[in-house]
Design a protein that fits this description.
Keywords: ATP-binding, Glutathione biosynthesis, Ligase, Magnesium, Metal-binding, Nucleotide-binding. By secondary structure, the chain is an alpha+beta fold. It has 17 helices and 21 strands. The structure holds adenosine-5'-diphosphate and magnesium ion.
Length: 522
C-alpha cells in the first residue's frame, strides 16, 4: 500500500517505564558491543560508553524500505561502471573540480598518475546509499529521496545490526514496550538486518578472489578513532566466520613500514612485534580513513595511498571508486541521458549484472531516478546559471554541498548567498575556474513531521525526547573489474540513524545522530 502518513510516535511512557528502558538499553549495549570509546580515550582503553541510541525503533513505510533494498544492486552496478569509465571520471572530476578543490584534485591527479601501472583489476566496494523520507506536502504519498551514495568508509553496519537486535530485545522483554502499541511493535514489523555479516562477507569475497589463504586484510584507520567497535566487529567476524586475519594501521604507520615488492607488486607489512616472523601479505586494503583532507595532513599520506594503489592488493575502495562517490558525480548523473548511458549503454562492462544493454532495464533507470531530488552544477552552463539564480533568490529551498565526506561541511538555506559571495571574492589564479564550481546545489528533502523518539547520547545518563528525522542507509557489496565469474553484487543490510529535527546535519560520528532501526508500517 502506498505510504501517506506515519503513525504518531512514540507511544507515551511513564517516567518509570522510561528509566527501565534506559537501563535495559544501556546494559544490552555494553554487553553486545554497541559501544564507542569515550572522548579522549586512554590506550589501551579502560572504559567504553554506549553508542548513541534510540529507545524505540522509528516507523518507516514498508514499501519505501523495500524499494530502497530492491534497487541497491542497480546502484552498485552504476557506481562500479562509473569507476571503470576513465573518460567520464576525467571529464567530471578532472575538470573544474580538480582545479578548485585541492583534495579532489590530489585524488584525481594521483589516480591518473598510476592508473596505467595498476596490476590488480579487481575493485571492492562496500557501499551505502542514504535516503530521507520526502513529504511532497501536496497530500501525495511519501517518497524516498537519496541524500548521497558513499563509496568509501561506509560505517555503522555492525552497530546498526546490533541496534535492530536491541530494539527487538527491548520489545520482547517489556511485553512489546509495556503494551503501549501492540499492533505496531509486532515482531513481524522488524526487518532482519545482517549488515555485519554481509559487509564482512564482502571483505571475505575480496580476500578469496585474491587467492592466498595466508594473506590478511588491512584496515587503514584514523588516529584517535572512537568508533572502533564498529570496525572491530568486522575484524572478529572475518576471523570467526571466514578464518581471515585483520591487521590495523594508520596512514602514518604504513608510510614507514608498508613494502611493495618491485617485481610481484605484492603488498606486505612487517610486524615490529614479531621481527622474526615473515611480513604479512595483504589481500584487501580496507579504508576507514583516507576520505577527508585531515587524513592527509603532511602530504606524505598521498605517497602512501599511491604506493598501496599500485600494489597487487584489492582496494576497498580504489582511488577511482572513491572519485566515483563524489557529490559532483551524483549531480552529473542527474543530467539528461547520463544515467541511461551507464545502465543501458551497450558497451558497459559486466559488474555482476551481465554486460551492456539488457542486463539492466528501463525500469531500473526509472526506479533510481525516482529516488533523486533536484541537483544543479555551480558552473557557467545554462543549468549552472539557473542554479545561481535559485541559490540567491530562493535559498530556503536548498543546500550547497562541497566535495567532502564525513559530515559538517554543507551550507544550508539562508547561509548560501553569503557563502557564494565569499567564494566569488576568494582569490584565484589566472585561468582558474570560480571556486563555486567545486560545489553542487541540491534541493532540500522535506522529512515528514510528527515523529518523535527517545534519543540517548553515549555517556549520558538520560534519554531526551525529540522530534526526529531518520536517514535510511542501504549497504551494498560490489566486487568487479575482473572476470565475470568473480563478480559480486548484492544488497548488504541497512542503517537507520535518527537525529533531532532541529539539526541540519546527521552524522552519528560527529555526534548528532543516534543509531536506530526501522519499524515497518503499511
Ligand atoms: P556527508 O558526506 O558529509 O555525509 P551528506 O550529503 O550526507 O554529506 O550530508 C550530510 C547530512 O546533511 C545528511 O546526513 C542529511 O542529514 C543532511 N542533508 C544532506 N542533503 C540534504 C538534502 N538534500 N535535504 C535535506 N537534508 C540533507
Ligand atoms: Mg552523508
Amino acid at each position: 500500500m502506498p505510504s501517506k502518513t506515519l503513525p504518531h510516535w512514540p507511544p507515551p511512557l511513564t517516567a518509570d517505564q522510561q528509566s527501565h528502558l534506559l537501563l535495559l538499553a544501556t546494559t544490552y549495549a555494553f554487553a553486545h558491543g554497541l559501544t564507542y570509546l569515550p572522548p579522549n580515550p586512554s590506550f589501551p582503553p579502560t572504559s567504553t560508553i554506549s553508542a548513541p541510541l534510540s529507545l524505540f525503533p522509528t516507523p518507516f513505510p514498508r514499501d519505501l524500505f523495500e524499494l530502497a533494498r530492491e534497487i541497491q544492486p542497480a546502484y552498485n552496478a552504476l557506481y562500479a561502471r562509473i569507476a571503470l569509465d576513465w573518460d567520464f571520471l576525467d571529464k567530471v572530476m578532472g575538470g573544474s573540480v580538480a582545479k578548485v578543490d585541492d583534495f579532489q584534485g590530489e585524488l584525481w591527479r594521483g589516480w591518473k598518475s598510476v592508473r596505467d601501472e595498476l596490476v590488480q583489476p579487481l575493485q571492492l566496494g562496500l557501499f551505502r546509499s542514504d535516503y530521507l523520507l520526502h513529504d511532497t506536502e501536496d497530500g501525495g504519498e511519501l517518497q524516498i529521496k537519496q541524500v548521497e551514495f558513499n563509496t568509501i568508509s561506509s560505517s555503522f553496519g555492525p552497530l546498526s545490526q546490533r541496534s535492530g537486535e536491541l530494539h527487538k530485545y527491548l520489545s520482547a522483554s517489556t511485553q512489546r514496550y509495556f503494551g503501549v502499541s501492540p499492533q505496531l511493535v509486532d515482531p513481524a514489523n522488524y526487518p532482519v538486518n545482517d549488515a555485519l555479516h554481509q559487509l564482512a562477507a564482502g571483505l571475505a569475497d575480496g580476500w578469496k578472489a585474491y587467492g592466498k589463504p595466508e594473506a590478511a586484510v588491512l584496515f587503514v584507520v584514523q588516529d584517535g578513532e572512537r568508533n572502533v567497535f564498529d570496525q572491530r566487529w568486522l575484524e572478529y567476524e572475518l576471523y570467526e566466520k571466514h578464518g581471515v586475519r585483520v591487521i590495523r594501521h594508520t596512514f602514518s604507520e604504513l608510510g614507514k613500514i608498508a613494502q611493495v615488492d618491485p617485481q610481484s607488486k605484492n603488498l606486505s607489512i612487517p610486524s615490529s612485534l614479531a621481527p622474526d616472523a615473515p611480513p604479512t601479505e595483504i589481500a584487501v586494503v580496507y579504508y576507514r580513513s583516507a576520505y577527508t583532507p585531515n587524513d592527509y595532513t603532511t602530504g606524505a599520506e598521498w605517497q602512501t595511498r599511491i604506493l598501496l594503489e599500485k600494489s597487487r592488493s584489492i582496494k576497498c575502495p580504489s582511488m577511482a571508486l572513491q572519485l566515483a562517490g563524489a557529490k559532483k558525480i551524483q549531480q552529473v548523473l542527474a543530467e539528461p541521458g547520463v544515467l541511461e548511458d551507464f545502465l543501458l549503454g551497450p558497451e558497459r562492462p559486466d559488474v555482476g549484472f551481465g554486460a551492456g544493454a539488457g542486463s539492466l532495464t528501463q525500469r531500473d533507470v526509472e526506479n533510481l531516478r525516482k529516488t533523486w531530488i533536484g541537483l544543479w552544477p555551480m558552473d557557467d552552463s545554462p543549468l549552472g546559471k539557473e542554479a545561481l539564480e535559485l541559490a540567491q533568490t530562493q535559498s530556503d529551498r536548498f543546500v550547497l554541498k562541497p566535495q567532502r565526506e564525513g559530515g559538517g561541511n554543507n551550507i544550508y538555506r539562508s547561509d548560501i548567498p553569503k557563502a557564494l559571495e565569499e567564494l566569488a571574492a576568494a582569490p584565484r589564479e589566472q585561468g582558474e575556474p570560480e571556486k563555486k564550481e567545486g560545489y553542487i546545489l541540491m534541493e532540500l528533502i522535506k522529512p515528514p513531521e510528527g515523529v518523535s523518539n527517545w534519543l540517548l547520547r553515549g555517556g549520558e545518563g538520560q534519554a531526551r525526547k525529540a522530534d526526529v528525522v531518520s536517514e535510511l542507509g542501504i549497504y551494498g557489496v560490489g566486487l568487479f573489474g575482473g572476470k565475470a565469474a568473480e563478480n559480486v553484487n548484492r544488497q548488504a543490510g541497512f542503517l537507520l540513524r535518527t537525529k533531532g529535527r532541529e539539526s541540519d546535519e546527521g552524522g552519528v560520528a560527529i555526534g548528532i545522530s543516534s543509531i536506530d532501526s526501522p519499524l515497518l508500517v503499511d
